[in-house]
Structures are given as structure tokens and as C-alpha cells.
């Protein structure tokens, strides 16, 4: 049997194309929100009702004229690009001119808009499935645009049946809007579910003020924000990228669900950059934990090809290896501690809550107008830490101009030794070989894998003729070598060696010894946590001490005068 080839009818072509662009309720929200942001909106109101298959997005952007309203839902009509060359210098979130036409194909579309000029009026346009305006009228409207999408997929019931349940669709919409808020922190968001306010996101200076609104139990002091400028690899223009990191001693995740990447205002999937972020946190987090981090690259659009996927979540990024190296260096810089970060830790915040509750039961109130200390953005090695005491032969007490720190001596020394071993994995020949008994084949192979020289020495006996330098003069060198023989790569061996070689808790130290340790620890690359992910120091700031001891009370009142 032979079948003839014939062109598809235009209405079939339109439905197929529209279904690729608008595949869900979330896709409608995404396209409308992106158009609003492209129009310069600083305030967005999003209303979603999955039970009624209805979406409405209102913004205070620049609006559209009557003529533009007549054209905006026509196929491939856009104000973002004009020529083929424009495809390689995209600076907007939308550019293909497909979204509104596709939405009109799959729903009932109504748009109200008014431009910013004071003497203009607002217009309401109703569209048919071809994106043509079929009814228009003058309306009273503040400058901006309101897009209402009703009866979504009403003419494609099979699509409705294939979509997730309403709660799942709402979860996808929430995730999308949170991502957009992180990419555009200066926008005020108000999101409604039907007639009920669902959530809102207040604007901020940067993402450090946005993320705590999205994740419970995350405070701004748990995060580190860094904005870097680098030379572009192709031209003389500067490129920028923002890094928002959860400090490893304060917050981390069970899954890599908050390792996010955005490029020029839009979240994208980039497994290479995501893996770079995860790798950069190596040996700073507990086992099987993942970082919380958000990377936002702001690049010359000529370095990006957006024309890869209808949802624009997959891109071709030029010079990927260069950006991976820059991101790794940026994470290393962000994980250092600076004087400007000597603010409250989570412990200080909890103490503050307790003090606030205690104050409500007394006639006295603390002075909360004391300005926080200011400091320059310097690395931790520029912070003057002076050792004053040792507590329980475990914790080193060090003071700085704005408070005191408690530093656990064992894990601080472990961090020092680990980074030294990373830089120089030195193997030494002992005066006499270390004899190990009853080794299994896999233990011998493991010792050789990490660079040790092992040879048979007799019946079920092996001589280890080179050992890691820190273990050379230790009395438990043999036990340490047995521990190393039970598996892991070179990095694991370095961690185990550093842990066994570090000063033990319970060891008394002189002030000079403690000061030397603190000075070494300050210049490590990752001073916040040990290689196992445990926090190294606890900060207690002067402001918390002053509040606890009621130093801001009026003396007469505090004595009952």
C-alpha cells in the first residue's frame, strides 16, 4: 500500500506548534511573566486557578498601544528581534513572537493595556484562535498590562487529561516564580490562588534578601553573596556573575535540589556548571550533604545561543571551561571569612529571640539603636584574632574587636593539615620499614594506590617503606597505615592522615602554641568547616554580649532608683 505525501492544514500546523511552546499551565505563567519583565515591570500580580484552567498576570510595565495590541498575538510578531543577526545578541527573556499566538490557539485570550503616557487611555482586546483582535474597547486602567487566559486547552482535551494534578501544577508554578524572583530581585511579587492570596515576595537589593523568603529556617546571615567582574574570553567587554552560597557551617541540603544556575535573567539547566558548584564545596560539607548555591551569569549575549529549546532552559554556552574555572575561584573566595561577615550566627539569633522574650516580662527595654560595627571586606587572615584562653583543653578562646570566637582546636588543626597535605603529599622513608601483618590483597593495592611502597617481608608480613610525612614520628603510625589500607582515594587518605595527626582534644596548649595554630588556620582556603563538614568556630558578638548583660540599661533604673 502506498501513501501520498501532502501538506498539513494550517490549523493542524498551528496546534502542533502551539503545543510545543505552551505545554502546561506553568508555561503560560512563564511566558506572560517574561513578557512583563521585558516590559520593565517592577510589580507583578499573578493569579492562578488550575481547577478553572485560568491564569491572569498584571504588571506595571510600559504597556502597549492600541496598534501593538492588535498585532501582539499574530504569529511570530515581536518587538525583541528584527533580523537573523539579532538571534545571536538576545538581551530579552522572550524573542520568538510565539507565546501570545500559541496561547490564543489554546485558550480564550484577553489583554488590557495602557502605555505610560498620561494623556493616553487603556484598551481591552479580545482575540480569536488565530490571534486576531475581534473586539476592542476603551477601559479605565493604570499604566501597565493585564493578560487573562481562560479555558486553557479547552480545544485540546487530551492535553488536559495528560497534565499533573492541580496541586502538582501549583507546585511547578511556585517553583517557576521563585526562580524568576531570584533572577530579578528588584521585583515585587504577589501571587493568588483563585481568590486567595497564596504568597508574596518582597523586592531586595540582591538575592541574599530573596532566598530567605523562599526557604524556611534560612536567615540572611546563613548566606554569602558575592558579585564578581571578569574579563570576557572573546572580547574586551567585562562579564559579571553573582554567587549566592549557603555557608557550609550553617546550612546544607540532603539533595542537590538547590544547586541552581541562571544566565542573563533566566534559569537554565547546565549539568557542567552545577557539578562545578558541587565540586567546589568538596570537603567542606558533611558526608552525603549538598550545598545551597545559586549562580547567575551575566554575559555578552554573543556568547550564548538561546535558540536550542522552546522553553529556553537549555543553551549553548561558549567557553564553558573558562566559566567553570571562574566559578570555582569565585566559590573559594566566597567561602573565606571577612570582617564584614562578623554578624550574628544562628546561635546569636536564637539568643536574641530569648532575650526579646525575656524583655517583654520586665519594665526595662534594651537600646536597639546601637549601630553594628563596620569593617572593610578583607579576608579572614586580616581579622585580628588574639588568643586569650583554652577551655577544657578543647576550645580556644580568641577575641577580636567586635566579640569573641570559640574555636575547636582539633578540627581547626585538621583543616590546616588537610590543606597542607593537599598542596604537598610528601612520602618519607622511615629509618626502618613499618611491618604490617595479615593484609588482604585489596589492602595492599590500596596502599600502593595512594603512593606507598609496599613489599612482601615474610609469611603474611609486608614492609611499608614509605609513609606520609605527618605519620613518620607518631607512635600509632602502624595503626594509621592499617586505617589507610581499607579504601578510598588519595583525598580520603589525606583526610584520614590529617585527622589522625591533628592535635587531640584534651591536649593542653600554651598561649603561643594556640596563637600559632589560629594564625595558620586563618589563612586556609576553607576556614569554616573541617574536611568532614563540622563547623570549626562559634562567634559570639559584642552586640549579643551587651544585650545579655543589659549593658544599655540606665544605671539608675537598673538599681531601682
Query: What is the structural class?
Result: alpha+beta
Query: Rounded to an integer, what's the Rg over CA atoms?
Result: 31 Å
Straight-line distance between termini: 108 Å
Low-confidence spans? 343-347, 358-379
Helical residue percent band: 25-40%
What is the beta-strand fraction? 15-25%
Mean pLDDT reading: 83
Largest sheet: 8 strands, mixed
User: Widest sheet: strand order?
Assistant: 5-4-3-6-2-1-7-8
Q: How many DSSP E strands?
A: 24
Number of helices: 17
Q: Which overall shape is indicated by the principal axes computed on the Cα atoms?
A: elongated
Q: Can you give keywords for this protein?
A:
single chain; alpha+beta; 8-stranded mixed β-sheet; 5-stranded mixed β-sheet
Write up what this structure looks like.
It is built from 17 helices and 24 strands. The chain is an alpha+beta fold and 561 residues long. It has an 8-stranded mixed β-sheet. Residues 343-347 and 358-379 have low confidence and may be disordered.
Put the structure in a nutshell:
The chain has 561 residues and is an alpha+beta fold. The protein has 17 helices and 24 strands.
Write the layout of secondary structure elements.
Blueprint: H1 10-21, H2 25-38, E1 43-49, E2 54-59, H3 66-71, H4 99-106, E3 108-114, E4 122-127, E5 133-139, E6 144-150, H5 157-162, H6 166-183, E7 188-193, E8 196-201, H7 211-214, E9 223-231, E10 238-246, E11 259-263, E12 266-268, H8 271-280, E13 293-298, E14 304-305, E15 316-317, H9 320-334, H10 346-359, E16 386-391, E17 395-400, E18 403-408, H11 409-423, E19 427-428, E20 434-437, H12 441-449, E21 454-458, E22 461-464, E23 467-468, H13 477-484, H14 490-501, H15 511-522, E24 537-541, H16 542-548, H17 555-558
Parallel strand pairs: 1-7, 11-13
Antiparallel strand pairs: 1-2, 2-6, 3-4, 3-6, 4-5, 7-8, 9-10, 10-13, 11-12, 14-15, 16-17, 17-18, 18-24, 19-23, 20-22, 21-22
Helix pairs in contact: 1-4, 2-6, 8-9, 11-14, 11-15
